[in-house]
Design a protein that fits this description.
single chain, alpha+beta, 6-stranded mixed beta sheet, 5-stranded mixed beta sheet, binds zinc ion, metal-binding, MYND-type domain-containing protein, zinc ion binding
């Protein structure tokens, strides 16, 4: 099947540093065209000879560093969660009912095994009578909360539960559709591209796989009136956005860990710009950009031409949105393919609604060029940890999880080197990256310790 094959053009960025575009030589030191960053040559001679053919596709490129751009994407996903709170159909049951027990940090009496017969447990929140919306996050909602801070954090964790598939998928799809759809941006002929450490992003997609969460960090719910058990965010169905650079580094953007009490976040205040009108959050949950978790599955979005065409047809300016047709069917069947299950009618409707909203946010940001006002260097992005009162930053699961992932990454690379599967140069690069992540980790520990003083 092909969508709007004549009228929609999908742009695929360079996928690999493999051969000269002119002479196809593979063994030379290849250089990227400095103007567009999207073609490779072995020599100046080849570049000159190819200019006539390449000219029409070449153009000034604005490169945004993933390290400074990602809080924008995180803030958008958080906004999606808040938006869905206003829908009666997607409102979380714990936000409209009174909490009857005391699931405070450190308490263990509310941690019970899941009723599915597995050896996994969760913290059970017992829910009673309905409350008014205005009573949410007040002592009426949760009378036994240890402090207002503890109560507010639990509320925000609950707010980020659920709808993971539509939120993550629609964000990735909207990002790719708006940024990578045309060789030139809609405004001034300059195209926008993401990069990391001077290497262009070559693939963007969805990674999916089970993650390990301790029982005390996992939430589930029980309705007192009928003893109905409601599973909270499921760590078996976890997904996030991955970015792979041309030189082979992978970064992951995981905004779904706050529900599991992994409470790192960024200050996104400077990402709130007039046109896109995201709320000026001073803290949005997102795991720091990192690498090394091996997902069970990866689903490319950037390199899925049919999916991108279908989305472009759906989101085209001037067409009535939400037009049901083969494009929508295609997008929704992709969602079920990624999810590995049948999605509910409500999830599908949520997906299409968020796809439209999120596309608009990325589009407005591009057209108005508000990305120019984003922080310019990674050092300007403030990462902090929203700790529980009794948590020591150095034992915080975020740090430990990251540190372990980094150790595993280097160990795996060393093993590959010994087996001759990677070159010494590739191992050097892995070591560099490991050292850089370690340094970053130290900086974060200091920041977390300072925030507690
Ligand atoms: Zn050449
Ligand atoms: Zn070029």
């Amino acid at each position: 099947m092909s969508f709007g094959s004549d009228s929609v053009q999908v742009h695929l960025p360079l996928a690999a540093l493999d051969k000269c575009f002119r002479c196809r030589k593979t063994d030379a030191k290849l250089r990227v065209c400095s103007s567009c960053g999207e073609v490779l040559y072995c020599s100046e001679e080849c570049q000159k000879k190819d200019w006539k053919a390449h000219k029409s596709n070449c153009g000034k490129t604005v490169r945004l560093d993933l390290e400074t751009y990602y809080p924008f994407v995180a803030a958008l996903q958080y906004t999606n969660h808040l938006l869905l709170l206003h829908r009666p159909a997607t409102l979380h049951p714990a936000l409209e009912r009174k909490i009857l027990n005391s699931p405070n940090p450190g308490s263990t009496e509310d941690i019970l095994l899941l009723p599915d017969g597995s050896d996994e447990g969760s913290r059970i929140i017992l829910l009673g009578d309905k409350i008014e919306e205005s009573e949410r996050d007040t002592p009426t909602w949760w009378p036994t909360a240890r402090s207002a801070q503890v109560r507010n954090k639990l509320m925000r964790r609950i707010m980020t539960e659920g709808n993971m598939l539509p939120i993550v998928l629609s964000t990735a799809l909207a990002l790719v559709t708006e940024i990578y759809s045309t060789p030139h941006s809609r405004t001034d002929g300059a195209r926008l591209r993401l990069q990391s450490r001077h290497s262009p992003i070559a693939d963007i997609g969805i990674a999916k796989g089970p993650i390990r969460v301790t029982s005390k960090d996992r939430l589930s719910y029980m309705l007192k009136e009928n003893s109905e058990f409601i599973l909270g965010q499921d760590p078996k169905e976890h997904c996030w956005i991955y970015f792979i650079t041309l030189d082979g580094h992978e970064y992951i953007l995981d905004c779904g860990m706050f529900a599991f009490n992994m409470a790192t976040g960024v200050n996104a205040k400077e990402y709130c710009q007039p046109a896109t009108a995201l709320p000026p959050y001073t803290w949005v949950p997102v795991m720091p950009l990192t690498a090394g978790w091996n997902p069970k599955h990866r689903f490319s979005v950037l390199r899925n031409v049919e999916l991108r065409k279908a989305t472009m047809v759906m989101m085209r300016v001037g067409t009535k949105p939400m037009r049901h047709g083969p494009e929508e069917d295609y997008i929704l069947s992709w969602m079920e393919y990624v999810g590995g299950r049948t999605c509910t009618k409500l999830e599908k409707a949520t997906m299409m609604e968020l796809l439209q909203d999120n596309s608009l946010v990325f589009r407005l940001n591009l057209i108005t060029r508000e990305y120019q006002n984003f922080p310019q260097t990674p050092a300007d992005v403030t990462v902090s940890v929203d700790l529980d009162p009794d948590q020591d930053p150095s034992t915080h699961p975020d740090f430990n999880r990251q540190a372990q992932a980094q150790e595993r990454y280097l160990k795996a690379k060393t093993k590959q080197l010994r087996k001759g599967q990677i070159s010494a140069k590739q191992w050097d690069r892995a070591l560099d990256r490991w050292l850089a992540l370690k340094r970053l980790d130290e900086v974060r520990r200091e920041a977390a310790a300072a925030s507690r003083r």
